[in-house]
């Protein structure tokens, strides 16, 4: 299941996904009675799970099966957490939220007047009809368009920013040096005018 907890950053600042397929495998093993949960699975685990994957499973006792369209929904929930810096449904009862997500298509509250393309993408990812959620290629294209200046990984971007900053500093230093030389020449001229010739 895609969530912020399954996204890791490696030493090169590249995003890596963990637990890929584990939830589906655990679901099947629990359904076939090969294993059983000893403790309740925290309800927080289910907050970013697509509503269609929550239908028909025992919340707290089984893991939902993973699907690509379910991960698109989860991606939208992750975008919400990243953009607004709070967890989805942070101030609501988890039990009530899980029921309302499935039964009443509950989604996090967003200002309807917002025309930010990233927020539009996020809301499209939450579509109640899984087949109408954006495809991965559309998401990638939208993000590339929004962040067109960001190429490569974080280290590459930091190097580019530092190079740009160094060029700006060199320009400022050259400008200030020319002002200093000009001021020095003006000072020399004034001194020559004030002092008597030898």
List the topology elements.
Layout: E1 7-9, E2 15-17, H1 22-31, H2 51-54, H3 68-84, H4 94-103, H5 117-125, H6 136-146, H7 154-194
Antiparallel strand pairs: 1-2
CATH architecture of the largest domain: Orthogonal Bundle
The CATH topology assignment of the largest domain is Transferase(Phosphotransferase), domain 1
**Portion in helices:** 40-55%
- How are strands sequenced across the largest beta sheet? 1-2
Count of all domains:
2
> Unreliable runs, pLDDT <50, ≥5 residues?
none
Pfam families: PK_Tyr_Ser-Thr
Enzyme class: lyase
InterPro entries: Cyclic_nucleotide_synthase, Kinase-like_dom_sf, Prot_kinase_dom, Ser-Thr/Tyr_kinase_cat_dom
Protein name: guanylate cyclase
Question: What labels describe this entry?
Answer:
two-stranded antiparallel sheet; 3% strand; lyase; Transferase(Phosphotransferase), domain 1; adenylate cyclase activity; nucleotide-binding; ATP binding; elongated; 52% helix; 2 strands
What does this entry look like structurally?
- This protein is mostly helical.
- It folds into 2 domains: 4-146, Orthogonal Bundle (Transferase(Phosphotransferase), domain 1), CATH 1.10.510.10; 149-198.
- The chain is built from 7 helices and 2 strands.
- It has helices spanning 22-31, 51-54, 68-84, 94-103, 117-125, 136-146, 154-194; strands spanning 7-9, 15-17.
- It has a two-stranded antiparallel ribbon.
- Helix 3 packs across helix 5 (117-125).
- The protein is elongated and about 110 Å long.
- The chain starts with 6 loop residues before the first strand and ends with a helix.
- The relative contact order is 0.10.
- Pfam families: PK_Tyr_Ser-Thr.
- It comes from Wuchereria bancrofti.
- One of its GO terms (molecular function) is protein kinase activity.
């Amino acid at each position: 299941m895609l969530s912020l907890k399954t996204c890791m950053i490696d030493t090169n600042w590249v995003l890596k996904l963990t637990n890929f397929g584990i939830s589906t495998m655990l679901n099947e093993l629990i359904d076939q009675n090969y294993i059983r949960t000893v403790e309740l699975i925290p309800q927080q685990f289910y907050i970013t799970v697509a509503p269609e994957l929550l239908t028909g499973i025992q919340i707290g006792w089984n893991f939902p099966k993973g699907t690509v369209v379910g991960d698109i929904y989860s991606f939208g929930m992750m975008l919400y957490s990243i953009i607004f810096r709070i967890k989805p449904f942070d101030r609501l009862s988890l039990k009530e939220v899980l029921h309302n997500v499935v039964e009443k298509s509950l989604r996090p509250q967003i200002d309807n007047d917002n025309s930010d393309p990233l927020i539009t993408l996020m809301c499209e990812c939450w579509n109640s009809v899984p087949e109408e959620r954006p495809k991965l290629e559309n998401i990638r294209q939208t993000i590339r368009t929004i962040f067109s200046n960001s190429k490569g990984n974080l280290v590459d971007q930091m190097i580019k920013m530092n190079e740009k900053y160094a060029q700006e500093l060199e320009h400022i230093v050259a400008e200030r040096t020319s002002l200093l030389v000009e001021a020095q020449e003006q000072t020399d001229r004034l001194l020559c005018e004030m002092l008597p010739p030898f």
